[in-house]
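[User]
If only I could read backbone structure tokens as easily as an amino acid sequence. I have put the entry right below:
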Amino acid sequence: MIWSEYKLKNLTKTRHYLIFILPGFILYCLFVIYPIISAALNSLYKWNGIGPKTYVGFQNYIELFTNSELLSQLLNALKNSLIIFVLTVLIILPLQIIFAYMIYSKTRGHSVLQAVIFSPQFISTPVIVFIFTLLLDSNIGIVNEFLKNVGLAFLAQPWLGMPSLGIYIVWLMISWAGFGVGMVILIGAMKMIPTDAIEAAFLEGAGYWKRLMIIIFPQIKTTILNLIIISYITAMTIFDYSYILGGVAGGINGSVDVMSLFFYRIAFGDNNPLGGNLSENSIGMGTTVAVVLFLIIVVVAAIQMYFTVRKEED
């Protein structure tokens, strides 16, 4: 009798949990799981989004990787996305750690520093692109004017007209706009570190930056790995900066083309009324690109998460 009452009580608790998570689970399936499955199925068809579908199996995938033009655009967009990711991890992430530590340790003016660094979050993407356009304009840009005023006129360049610098300018915009987000996450992780360990290191003679290396850094490695995952996903899904700066073509010779813009161009490009570079198969090929992008993100993110879990277990 007691066992039956115990099982009934647990069943009631489980039912309450299920009722609590059911609305969120339904919405998740509706807006996340279903679109993924639908895109995967549509990638198996030749379809322009309007007329009837024609089942072609994996022919879209074969064409994507054998058509020289499509493959060239895919590899170029992937290369640019990876450049953004690598530069973010090698340059921006260390700077975020340093600034987060300065704010966490309450250096002089830390409140103003935090507000200034985080303020770009309140600026829309078109405004950010416009600001950088004013800074880098070859005629009225502040950067060139500064170089001329300090006697470095030979370094002045038409920055926005140089395809070789296009993706790096996009990276600067993304980094300036998103720097504060990663910094705030790191500050939160640092605040969870027991203060007695930091105080003990201070009493033993560890300097300001040494405390960062021997106490703070080892304690926030999991957060850093999570930020690397976020940086990778962001680099693979960024769209608006490249679209505003270079249009649907991704700039001169695809200089600012990225994976999400490549998908948009194939599925909804403006080269014809139906959309896409391949009008008779714009949606079929577009969803094929979307599935490939999804797999690229999931596989790499899964590997990174595996090492994150291993780190937590260690």
Summary: The chain has two domains: 2-42, 69-313. The first helix runs from residue 2 to 42.
